[in-house]
Amino acid sequence: MSKLKIFLIVSLILVGCSNSENTPENKTASEKVDQVESQPQAFKAEELTNSEEKRILDLAKNLKTKDGSSVLETIQYAEKNTKNKFKAGEFETTYNRDGSLEGVALNYWISDSREPEDAFLDIGWTLTPDRKGFLSVKESSPTLSDEEIDNLTVTHLMNGKNDFLKYVDQLEH
Question: E strands of 41-169, at which residues?
Answer without folding.
Answer: 86-95, 101-110, 120-126
